[in-house]
Amino acid sequence: MKPVLHSGSSSNGFSHRRVEKEAGMNNAQPSAGTTENGWEAGSVDTPSHKLLVYFTTCNIGHQVEVHLKNGSVYSGIFHAADVEKDFGIILKMACLMRDSRGTKSRSPLVSKPPSKILIIPADEVVQVIAKDLPVSSHNGSDSVQCEKPLELLTDSLISQFYNVDLERELKPWVPDEDVPDCSDLENVFDDPWKRGWNQFEVNKSLFGVTSTFDEELYTTKLERGPGTRELEEQALRIAREIVGENTRDLHVAEERGLQLSGKFDIDEETKYSSVCTANRFDDTCYEDEDEEEDILLDCCNNLTFGDSSASDGKKPASTGMVYEETWGDSLHLRNNKIVDQSWSNSNKHSHQLMSEQPSKDFPVAGNKIRNESQLGEQRKSKFLGSSLYKKPSEESVSGLEDAPPSEKPSFTDGRVGLLSDRAKSESSSGWPGSSISRNSENYAASSASNRPILSPSSSIGSLSSEKSTLNPNAKEFKLNPNAKSFKPSSPSAKSPQSPVPDGSFYYPPVPPMPGLRIRYGMGGAFPGQQHPMMYNNTTQLSPNQTYYSPNSPQYPQQMMITQQRPVLFMPPTPYQPEMPYNGRDSY
Amino acid sequence: MDPAGGASVASDIGGEGEKFAVGNIYSVKVITGDEFRGIVMAYDPIPNFVFFEEGTKPRPGHSKNARMVNANFITGLSYLGKTEDPLDTDNFSVDLNGLRAKEALAIRQAEADAERMGVGVTAEAQSIFDALSKTLPVQWENSDILVMKEVRVRSPYLSDCVFGGTDAANNRVKKVLELERRRLQLFGT
């Protein structure tokens, strides 16, 4: 390092000898312009000295403040210090921050320009303060450290905003005293019905507008009566269980506060991007969408069948039935394989499963289920029949259920319909919240030991139509004359769904296609991708039916299904704005 | 060098090595009245300077607030304790080139900053200059602000102190000046 020999303005007028610092332990390099005494390298080469030299060297180039004996403070760029002698300091571009009289200013006094070079003799120096001095032992990365500030250009830096601290002191807002206390509006985040605010009334009084709004036009009728409270409790219980469910979907898990992925380094882009990266595309997408779908189905099923399955799934006392577990897991279903298994299992035990219906699950089954039965009816009528038949066979159920034979469940069409609904088929009609809650009312009342009537029921129906590996003891399918006939509509992919589908469900007798599964365009982890639509022999689909989860945004289904052929549809573009998302904000 | 001048108090030649042993924590008061607490990082009796890391807990690897204190001017010293070696390794290497580059950069920035500083102008003038410089090219000319090399704003930098330049430029500068003054009033209280 070449020493700085020229003298600029010095604090008291005499130039001072200084020697450039030398780095590290190697003091053998004499600096070019040494002092009169020369650099006596090694003369004071004690470890403490070396240490001091090291630290002092770290200061080079750093903005430091030098306090002088007379109280003045200079700020400048540290250039050199005479470590050999008495530590005279050289600063470059030094400004007087505070003069000896003690007057202080945040910015340098503007009375005179900064000195290009300032030499301070040692006996004036009281202390030298360097803020954020990098003294890392691994100073080989110094260049990196130096570069870093260049990269981190904040707006304030760029605009050289010097007035950053000229801000008002913030005070919390207090309402005026004469403003009436609108406590009604304070709890805006409460549920709307708790707020005591009736917009319709207000509109009427303010504008004379009479509303013709009738909630029941848009949703299924909520029965309010003596049993309301019970039903509400059931609904809450189911809701709680759903929310507490395990899930594989990243987004749902995040909402529920579950730590899903073991990899903590998934950045936000991966998590929340709607772009499906290549590797995700192949397997995970499908998988996830399956899971999504399964989750949705499970939720739907849960809602309809009460959370008996959920709760049961958690209870070891639940039947040792395989389906039980699978259904308990179906709430946690992650891939269709399991579902298939469950299906097959349930197929075997279909009748038994049917019999497991907890009677209490359907205390009010009658009319309430009726509402669902709109959906149910659209199910294959044969389901209804079969389910009806299942009921009496309770007792005949062999060892599969450990559950006490439930009281005669009030088996209704609706119930069956629901059961069939559980078959992965998406009950096309949306599940309006109220109706769902009602369903849960129906089923939530089930005792803990209730066996969930799981999708197998639907599979029962479906299976009954097929011979092969079905349960030979299953009851025959009996046609339900009340079921609406199925009218397949053209597979218009994007028809918006009404809450109650017009067409009845139709269960096409598609031979089982190995490895094919029907997927819904639920798209959760499959953003922008259209689900390939595949048939599963145990599920039923209506081309225009969509599953509407109560919470997710309603998107028209992209369903392209032909009767006898599985259709694999891969959209050419990666982004499909209509793909419904599960657990994601709509976009 | 003269270790114990009249003004020095704390230097005690006898136990100086132990006194400022690396790792010791002290509360230090200097002659200027400044006080701080720090951990000794280095000490050399020859120049009699102590290198402190501010704070009472060592943070190896972090950048530190460092103070190099002239031991002659320490007026109060109280021993607070000791920590283990605050330096994590003994691998001391300094990238001289990096430091030089850092210094050069700092100097360049400081010079640029100096350009923006008016000499002998009031703080208000300086803030007006800064505000104008955000959107207009300005430079100091003695105590005048020269905008776009044409329009001159003289002390006391009011709207009627704007001279020169084309009409459009003049008006523009006037307007900006007014608004900036208003803004400064708002924030500057």
Automatic annotation (TrEMBL), chain A:
One of its GO terms (molecular function) is mRNA binding. InterPro entries: ATXN2-like, LSM_dom_sf, LsmAD_domain, PAM2_motif, Sm, SM_dom_ATX. Coiled coil: none annotated. It comes from Arabidopsis lyrata subsp. lyrata. One of its GO terms (biological process) is stress granule assembly. It comes from the Eukaryota. PROSITE patterns: SM. PANTHER family: ATAXIN 2-RELATED, ATAXIN-2 HOMOLOG. Residues 345-357 have a biased composition (Polar residues). The gene is CID3. Residues 426-465, 481-501 have a biased composition (Low complexity). It holds the Pfam family PAM2. One of its GO terms (cellular component) is cytoplasmic stress granule. Residues 51-134 form the Sm domain. Residues 345-506 are annotated as: Disordered. This is Ctc-interacting domain 3.
From TrEMBL, chain B:
It holds the Pfam family AD. InterPro entries: AD (IPR047574), Lsm12-like (IPR039683), LSM12_ABD (IPR019181). It comes from the Eukaryota. Residues 92-185 form the AD domain. PANTHER family: LSM12 HOMOLOG. This is Predicted protein.
